């Protein structure tokens, strides 16, 4: 159950009583952390063109849940990838020819910061709960080649309106 925040703006700004606090399902929602200090909980998929930082949490049962077959990049900001429960691997694409792909193993309760503009992808070792925080504008996905002999060009596309994954 995702619930939109219904706190009146004038109450937030002046700190007056009367603010309603309503629980919501973090795994079914996207949190938008706006530059003016407000936080908006919305339902998925996340709308494009949102202002400010975005926090997304998900229960990932298969690689498809974390776009395992795709590299992604966030040119507008760094990204935090957190393993809340389970075990995942964060892969960073080589930055220069001849370099190897970096692999960072994340266990439950650990996180890593992906540098701004660095292509990355996530793979699951076991079903996991994953959380990510970034600025979404400009996010792009690129399909990973289908095998070692596939040297054709990868397909690059803007991120879909679905929430970015770890």
TrEMBL record:
Gene3D superfamilies documented for this protein = Jelly Rolls (2.60.120.10)
Domain of life (superkingdom): Bacteria
InterPro entries xref list:
RmlC-like_jellyroll (IPR014710), RmlC_Cupin_sf (IPR011051)
Q: Which residues form a coiled coil?
A: none
Region feature Disordered, mapped onto this chain: 136-166
Q: Which residues cross the membrane?
A: none
**Compositional bias segments (type: Basic and acidic residues):** 140-154
**This chain belongs to which protein, by name?**
Cupin domain-containing protein
Organism listed in the record: Nonomuraea antimicrobica
Q: What is the lineage of its organism?
A: Bacteria, Bacillati, Actinomycetota, Actinomycetes, Streptosporangiales
């Amino acid at each position: 159950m995702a619930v939109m925040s219904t706190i009146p703006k004038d109450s937030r700004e002046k700190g007056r009583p009367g603010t309603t606090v309503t629980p919501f399902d973090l795994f079914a929602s996207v949190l938008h952390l706006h530059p003016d200090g407000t936080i908006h909980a919305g339902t998925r998929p996340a709308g494009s063109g949102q202002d400010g930082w975005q926090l997304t949490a998900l229960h990932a049962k298969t690689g498809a849940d974390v776009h395992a077959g795709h590299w992604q990049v966030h040119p507008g900001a760094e990204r935090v990838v957190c393993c809340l429960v389970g075990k995942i691997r964060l892969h960073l694409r080589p930055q220069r020819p001849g370099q190897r792909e970096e692999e960072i193993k994340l266990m439950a309760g650990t996180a890593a910061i992906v540098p701004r503009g660095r292509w990355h992808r996530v793979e699951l070792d076991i079903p996991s709960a994953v959380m990510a925080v970034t600025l979404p504008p400009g996010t792009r996905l690129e399909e990973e080649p289908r095998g070692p002999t596939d040297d054709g060009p990868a397909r690059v596309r803007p991120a879909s309106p679905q929430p970015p994954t770890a």
